[in-house]
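User: My instructor asked us to take a sequence, write out its structure as tokens, and then describe one feature of it. I'm not sure where to start. Here is the sequence I was given:
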Amino acid sequence: MKDTQTLERSTSTSPICIHHVAINVKDLQRSIDFFKDLVGLHVIDRDDHSAKLSIGDSEIVLFQLPSDINIPPGNKEEHPASLNHIALEIHPALFEKYHRCLKDNGVTITFGPVKRRHGYALYFLDPDGNKIELFYSNVSRNGN
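Assistant: Let's start with the prediction itself. The structure tokens for your sequence are:
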């Protein structure tokens, strides 16, 4: 991601946790750059056909498919709560910063921001049309 605004990489700007794990991609480096520079993930391992990116103790694994396999783009009309997405929890104070960074970089936002019962969510597409959800909750993990 060159000549575009990106998030500063630090623990204070990284998502809190990940809920979903594997993604097939057309261009491994393009997807690595996208998740690293615009979503704030960190590469922990990589080979010619895959890469592991971390959030705390969790991972997203990107698998580059052979060039003769076509991945259909995400269906923008599909309901955003479908199971075909990755959900990343972020700190409430970072929600607008992520939203602005994604918009400034021309990322397709498919739904949101939308108010949820205990916070806000935003759905967008990565370079291969996979749906990603960024959300924050005003409720702590222990229910308080």
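For the description part of your assignment, you could build on this observation: Confidence is low (pLDDT under 50) at residues 79-83. Try explaining in your own words what that tells you about the chain.
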